[in-house]
Each structure stands twice: as C-alpha cells, then as structure tokens.
C-alpha cells in the first residue's frame, strides 16, 4: 500500500483498513488503524495494527497460530536530509526515524517490518510447553517419554541428594 505524500492533507489522515502482506508468517490480512500527519517534509505515522501469525514453537517444534497486536510510532524524513554518508551512531531517540525518497511512502513495507521485528526470538505455543525429548524425540506435551532414566555419575551422586 503506497501513500502519496503530496496528497496527505494539512489536517492529517486517519487510515483504517486491512491489507495483505506477503510473508510466510503472516496468515491473515493486517488490520490497520493509523494516524498520518505531515509537517513540511516530515511525516509522522502513529497507530496500531493486528495480524494473525503462524509460528513454530522453539520447544516442541509444532506450528501454532497467534494474534499479534503492534503499536507503531515512526517519523519519516526525506532522504535528502542526510548530509553525509559517513558513519553515524544511532542515538536512542533516533530509533523511530526512517527515510523516504520521492513522493511515495510504502506503508506495507513498514507494517511487514514491524510485524517481523515483533516476532519473539523463541516463540512458544504455550508457556507450559514441555518440548521434545532429546533422546527419543517424543513430544512431551502429548506423550510420555520411554527413554531410560539417566544414570547419575557416581562422582555426582552425593550432589543429587541436595535436589531432593
């Protein structure tokens, strides 16, 4: 979804719609509720969106679906405002800054980026997920592992008594 910058009214623009993002993990249209304001060449986008995601549990490796709600607050500046291409250390207050060129701004790229950044590093199907057995590969959420109990090294037998 492309936004024509010159067509943003002075009083701003409210955008309430749904779009389809092409991504392996996004399985539903993304519901968007954004406020877009323009001050000279600066464009401010604030709002929320939600999407249904298909993820793989990091413990049991099963796929699961999750509804994700994301808040966005980004300020766009024209690419011409970058004075030099020298190395620049990003400050904490610049993390919500991005740049655009021309008269178009691709909102779908922003949405896809924000959704992918909000996917957890280790997604879990459930906080209580038991995962899989490292010995036989059984899904411990649905099966009892048939692996023999590990024998304790006799040198550490005394330490195991502390756990009881």
Detail the topology: elements first, then pairings.
Elements: E1 2-4, E2 13-19, E3 30-39, E4 42-56, E5 63-78, E6 97-100, E7 104-106, H1 107-117, H2 157-162
Parallel strand pairs: 5-6
Antiparallel strand pairs: 1-7, 2-3, 3-4, 4-5
Overview of the molecule:
With 164 residues, the chain is mainly beta. The protein folds into 2 domains: 2-117, no CATH class; 130-164, no CATH class. The protein has helices spanning 107-117, 157-162, and strands at residues 2-4, 13-19, 30-39, 42-56, 63-78, 97-100, 104-106. It is elongated. The relative contact order is 0.18.
Structure characteristics:
single chain, 164 residues, mainly beta, 5-stranded mixed sheet, two-stranded antiparallel sheet, 2 helices, 7 strands, elongated
Question: Could you give a short description of this structure?
Answer:
With 164 residues, the protein is mainly β. The chain is built from two helices and seven strands. The chain folds into two domains: 116 residues, no CATH class; 35 residues, no CATH class.
């Amino acid at each position: 979804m492309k936004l024509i910058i010159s067509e943003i009214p002075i009083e701003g623009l409210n955008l309430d719609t749904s779009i389809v993002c092409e991504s392996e993990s996004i399985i539903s249209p993304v519901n968007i509720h954004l406020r877009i304001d323009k001050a000279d060449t600066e464009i401010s986008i604030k709002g929320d969106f939600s999407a249904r995601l298909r993820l793989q549990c990091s413990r049991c490796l099963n796929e699961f679906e999750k509804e994700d709600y994301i808040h966005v607050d980004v300020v766009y500046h024209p690419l011409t405002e970058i004075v030099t291409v020298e190395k620049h250390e990003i400050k904490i207050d610049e993390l919500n800054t991005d740049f655009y060129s021309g008269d178009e701004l691709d909102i779908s790229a922003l949405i896809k980026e924000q959704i992918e950044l909000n996917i957890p590093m280790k997604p879990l199907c459930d906080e209580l997920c038991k995962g899989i057995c490292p010995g036989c590969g059984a899904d411990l959420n649905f099966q009892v592992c048939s692996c023999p109990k590990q024998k304790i090294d006799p040198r550490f037998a005394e330490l195991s008594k502390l756990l009881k």
